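=== RUN LOG ===
request id: a7f3
mode: sequence -> structure
chains: 1
length: 147
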Amino acid sequence: MEIVVYQPEIAGNVGAIIRLSANSGIPVNFIKPFGFNMQENKIRRAGLDYQDLAFVNNFESWNEFFKINKNKSIACLTSKGEKEYWNEDLNNFDFLLFGPESVGLPDKLREQYENLTIPMKNKSRSINLANSVGIVMFESIRQANVK
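=== RESULT ===
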């Protein structure tokens, strides 16, 4: 299982996700365009010295990513999902796809794949992107260790 982050907008979240990748061993794929410059200090500060230890791929577009991975299984993590992520075997998916911070995944992507969600209180809109990625990453590790 790998993480895919579609068009992230906040440098600090990307840095934190890079650090999560280094600490979990789970690869992360970032899909451009980004809402920031990858050289920003916020990425370096949040990622610290972990960038060399992380498993990170950058793709110029969804089309480039999809062309390479079109036969892989993908699940979307979205506040609009109905299936709770912990009720699915996350490691049965090749990729878990997360959307940009301000708008989430486009309907055209969500409609193509299974949609999972991290449950929240009724009036909550969303959970921070890096936190969401961390929650799901470590649940996939937990699931793999209980088999």
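=== NOTES ===
The longest helix spans residues 129-145.
DSSP finds five helices and seven strands in the chain.
=== END ===
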